[in-house]
Write a structure and sequence with these properties.
Two copies of one chain form a homodimer.
Chain A: E1 3-8, H1 16-31, E2 35-40, H2 46-57, H3 63-87, E3 92-95, E4 103-104, E5 113-115, H4 119-126, E6 130-134, E7 137-139, E8 145-147, H5 152-163, E9 168-173, E10 194-196, H6 197-205, H7 213-221, E11 226-230, E12 238-241, E13 255-259, E14 262-271, H8 276-286, E15 291-298, E16 303-311, H9 315-329, E17 333-337, E18 340-346, H10 356-366, E19 371-377, E20 380-386, H11 390-400, H12 408-417
Parallel strand pairs in A: 1-2, 1-9, 2-6, 3-6, 9-11, 10-12
Antiparallel strand pairs in A: 4-5, 7-8, 11-12, 13-18, 14-16, 14-17, 15-16, 18-20, 19-20
Helix pairs in contact in A: 1-3, 2-3, 5-7, 6-7, 8-9
Chain lengths: ~425, ~425
């Protein structure tokens, strides 16, 4: 018997029949002997409907009032889900962010959680009640309603799980879990039974949009085991936790992520002197453009080449800024390319295993795929390649690193899960 | 400069453009130098939409969850109205029942207000803010959301007005105020400038459905001057307050109310002995049927006749119950009629003026209208007549008592209002 937090997003509660299906899933967990706290989002479409009402009135509605407005979305869902559970014979009680004491700072629209009053949840749980909590919303110390921003419901669920010391926080989505890579590109992509928080962070930020980065960070910080599973299909999904048997054999690579939204800008032959990076990127940052990869390389004796990537939407603007500054920077040339992609291999096993990078380069070379940029971290290697090679690169790497085969680590943990 | 509470119902806030119109009305009061607290209902149709969602899940949803659900209706309106006011350059702040400390008992669906925390409202008012409060909803001492039941928004407005000691509580509706009688029946019906709480209670309960009885009682109890006016047409409406110049000349009659929903049941020749009224009405009450007028008359030496009225929907059921009990009651006969109406004259002036009743009977007699039942109170005379005479009776009485002419009282008070 475990204490579980189950989070269902907007598409999972998008209609009355879907809400009834969610109630069945919760009841199934209850019948297995588990205590359950459910965190839900607004019914899909509802938040946008409310925002559209606001937009009819104002192009810039006061953020405080926007939070009062959109927070009604989850309030509707918690009431309906509690009704569905009661109708099916299980006692249930709903709570808004205010009622549960989901205390946040006062940054309306993207508030950050400070604390949760777990007393009420735990006392309802004790008397056999399913507790249904509105995700995405909180309250300031002065009683003003706040929202956590897009994807905030995942964070709410993790926060509740941390506050009540839940055994697991289960995030129900429309996918079965986290895969070694995108199954639409590599049909042999395998559902991971386990992945670490760090790997998940790298996977998420690289475009595997299963979970909000913020919720993963929060879960990692408070050591809340997270599980991603499907609302609509059976299965155990993917468990995200710390690698607690750090000394044991580990999977070298957990997965291959990629991002099609990047564009590359290169500035060559700039003087190699202190402050040049800031001179190049300062104006970009001022234009509120986010920079992803940055690579600097020695070119000649006293000059250097500098390359960075931005979102494709910001490509034209970035190029314009740099071309304008080229003379001042004493650059030889400014060029760019928006037909590139980033492919990344992620795995905590890299830490202790040499040769991953060289094997990656070898695989790509065998396929005659030219690498334009390389960037590495402790548990990740990213390369920028021509976008036409994306699928080929992903499949070749997936196969070369045997990702379709379960790794020893995943096998072991699958035993300890059941 | 006065402190005003303005209440706008569902039809007044039924669309974005109507909400913007309400904002304009509030701003107009602000520009006249008044401080304003606005109390609003859910947008028309919204409460029913939410209840329909609940009904898809359960025929008897838990009342606590139903309150969580429907209370989102007003929450949407307060946010949108605050946005509209801000957009038009006036600072505004919304509050839910919970946020304003609208403390109620824990009878979900028809909670009664216990107290309001006026501190927050008054401090916002002090800094020049329009305060926008969600009507119809409250919160228990334990933080559970409650609703006050149908028409509860009027009561919310009165409660807020009492708590902050407002100069006037203005109820905006789709009529211009309270008339001497229904203008659809007597085109000469006159808009009253003034009416007392007691008169309004008699008018409301008799079918002039302008204001909820409960709100009028509440206003009377806390001596909150109430004003009924139209959202869509200009005008000063009708002020409802205590007759504070009790010694002065008063209008004899304020208005003529009527009720088409009544049916009459008569039981004749029952033994005139203690307890007989209870024996007759006990089984009716047990069937949850509400009885309106009750008249008992001496018939023979040792028997009595007993007549009462019920809602027409309850007519068949009441008749059946009485016929079943007729033998036990030793009644000669049980009969009924559901083609009758009640016509009532209401006026505090009756207290000090004799002869109103006899004049009323004379008027009806001249029109050959037969009176079937009579019932009187301090400020009201009601008669039951054949339904086909309703319009004739109302017009004859309206004319005979000169209700189309402003009374001295109304003239005087109209001066003191401006």
């Amino acid at each position: 018997m475990a204490l579980l937090v189950q989070k269902f997003g907007g598409t999972s509660v998008g209609s009355i029949s879907k809400i009834q299906h969610v109630a069945d899933k919760v009841i199934s967990a209850r019948e297995q002997g588990h205590d359950v706290v459910v965190v839900v989002s607004a019914m899909s479409g509802e938040t946008n409907r409310l925002i559209d009402l606001a937009k009819e009135i104002s192009t810039a509605p006061p953020p405080r009032e926007l939070d009062v407005l959109v927070s009604t979305g989850e309030q509707v869902t918690i009431a309906l889900l509690s009704m569905a559970l009661t109708e099916k014979g299980h006692s249930a009680r709903s709570y808004t962010g205010t009622q549960i004491g989901m205390l946040t700072d006062n940054v309306h629209g993207k508030a950050r959680i400070r604390s949760i009053n777990s007393e009420r949840i735990l006392s309802d749980i004790k008397r056999g009640c399913v507790v249904v909590v509105a995700g995405f919303q909180g309250v300031t110390g002065e009683g003003h309603i706040t929202t956590l921003g897009r994807g905030g419901s995942d964070t709410s669920a993790v926060a509740v799980a941390a506050a009540i010391n839940a055994d697991e926080c289960q995030i129900y989505t429309d996918v079965k879990g986290v895969y070694t890579t995108d199954p639409r590109i590599e049909s042999k992509a395998r559902l991971l039974k386990n992945i670490t928080f760090e790997e998940m962070l790298e996977m998420a930020s690289l475009g595997s949009k299963v979970l909000q980065i913020r919720a993963v960070e929060f879960a990692g910080k408070h050591n809340v085991p997270l599980r991603v599973l499907s609302t609509f299909e059976e299965g155990e999904g993917t468990l995200i936790n710390y690698d607690e048997e750090g000394g044991m054999e580990q999977a070298l690579i957990s997965g291959i992520a990629f991002n099609r939204d990047e564009a590359q800008i290169t500035i060559t032959g700039v003087p190699d002197k202190p402050g040049i990076a800031f001179q190049i990127l300062g104006p970009i940052a001022e234009a509120n453009i986010e920079v992803d990869m940055i690579v600097q390389n020695v070119a000649g004796d006293e000059t250097t080449d500098f390359t960075f990537t931005v979102h494709r939407n910001d490509y034209d603007c970035s190029l314009k800024i740099l071309k304008k500054n080229a003379v001042e920077l004493q650059a030889e040339d400014v060029s760019g390319d928006d037909t590139i992609v980033k492919v990344s291999m992620v795995g905590v096993g890299m830490r202790s295993h040499a040769g991953i990078a060289s094997k990656m380069f070898e695989v790509l070379s065998k396929e005659s795929i030219n690498i334009r940029m390389i960037s590495t971290s402790e548990i990740k290697i990213s390369v920028i390649i021509d976008e036409k090679y994306l699928e080929l690169a992903v499949r070749a790497l997936h196969s070369a690193f045997n990702l379709e085969e379960p790794s020893p680590q995943n096998e072991e943990n699958s035993l300890s899960e059941t």
